[in-house]
């Protein structure tokens, strides 16, 4: 903290309250002068390459080629010299831009989360990016309060002050309670997540595009590949290809897992109920998120089919006021063994019951709907295929698709087994899904409304889908296909005053003419 | 939670929307149906641009007409709303019916909107939003005067409840 900006007359963030107009605007750390130009250069890289290639092809190197480097560097420098921030007694303000002036300002009491991120270059220079979360619904990057380039120590202190963690920073460190710490053995769960597939898809896309850009597809000797492969039996080539693909996807998944989750640590700071959860993770880019206790209104334990088969799961927090589209920063534990997940979930909720209580099932009609919904479309499609084969339109081997029916039934069986709900310790618990199974526990205080949705088919079966809406996570916890009576009773037990006024006891209620087939 | 006899039932909201809402729904559905059938007829039988037979266009026309007649009547029977001192309660939909209840203390904004077709019939929509993206309550097809009254009433009521609504 020897920057010229921290002159004595400049109050430190959260120091003695000073009227807004008295607080001087401050620049970010001067070391950002190294980062911004490089970042702009990277952004201009495709254009630079084009200029360079065009220039070399023409056999000339004109002086203006230098502009291609000078302009991005100048833009980067400009960015530093036109970005200011200040923290007054009441507000955080960020001002940037030379031509398009942009002023972001938010009251301090609206600050809900503070993320401290450091990319590899930032880390080399001892800098961090501080993102101040206000729960904005905006997805525009320009609308986020990012203080890009503060010294690590300064960022830590700022975070503590913004979130009013009291004597934070170095002093509070010994009182931190570590709840979960990354174990390298967890990497075994990585290939069981979809991350690998997503990464592989992305990598393939980039590779294809690069190949296309350099005209690779024209040179690709398709016939040569086909002829070369004719020596191989299809029964050999396909399994080998699949195994290679599986290895590639797993390798990518493991890489992705390690890069994002290495060093994952979840700690709790301060007293049991009025502290904050503190998350840290990342191998190259480190990410630190701090969430106030008050803002955590539930947890969502996800154990998709593959992860479940290996007795793994992951858990994220339902955090109210977190910016939309940033659910990743509320991850409480990456894919890891189920007992670890359960322990973390119980710690975060402050009670073990919502995590372990056996759930009440939804009855035979709800289970039956899983089977009809899973097999119905498959049966229709298969009828078309069988008809086409019988009519000679399709080859006989299309009958392999009949295997889709047992697969659908197995899926339905698993989905039916998942259905369940409970209301324990003032938490609404709901579980559903198979490939994407989730057990969500939401504190009743986090519920901000109830939706009861039923299609005509559901009404005929006497079922309804009960949705507890909330301001965090996926915005709602859904109790799928629960008997109507149970749904009403559940919502009523959770919020008696709210539901009570709209209830009638069965004896006194005349059948309503406008509710056919309730 | 598990005793099954004499369980209370959730009744419907008390207020109905304006009867003119049926006309509004029929008009907008009718316009959509006319456009759909016209497009099909033009690209199909009239210009022969796509191989759509005339009978298919006629079938779509009949189904669309049935929709225009049935949907507004059904919808009108379902759509209801109620505002109490502590909550807003709505029932919407027709094939899929949805009931939504939001406590007054969780209301964030109250919107009043009049679409082009709604204005034709002197109707308006009142939307009550909460902090959850899954929790907006919409009352479609209110008489304009009634809607404005309701917005005022809700604004006053929501204001008197403390808290930041999340």
TrEMBL record, chain A:
UniProt entry keywords in alphabetical sequence: Membrane, Transmembrane, Transmembrane helix
Keyword Coiled coil among UniProt keywords: no
Segments crossing the lipid bilayer: 41-57, 63-81, 189-212, 232-259, 374-391
InterPro entries membership: UCP026631, YdbS-like_PH
A Pfam family assignment: bPH_2
Domain YdbS-like PH stretches: 80-161, 423-490
PANTHER family in the record: UPF0699 TRANSMEMBRANE PROTEIN YDBS, UPF0699 TRANSMEMBRANE PROTEIN YDBT
Protein name stated in the entry: Putative membrane protein
The organism's taxonomic lineage, starting at the top: Bacteria, Bacillati, Actinomycetota, Actinomycetes, Propionibacteriales
From TrEMBL, chain B:
Residue span, YdbS-like PH domain: 76-153
Lineage, top ranks: Bacteria, Bacillati, Actinomycetota, Actinomycetes, Propionibacteriales
Domain of life per record: Bacteria
Ranges that cross the membrane: 21-46, 52-74
Matches recorded under Pfam families: bPH_2
Keywords associated with the record: Membrane, Transmembrane, Transmembrane helix
Species the sequence originates in: Nocardioides soli
Name the record gives this protein: YdbS-like PH domain-containing protein
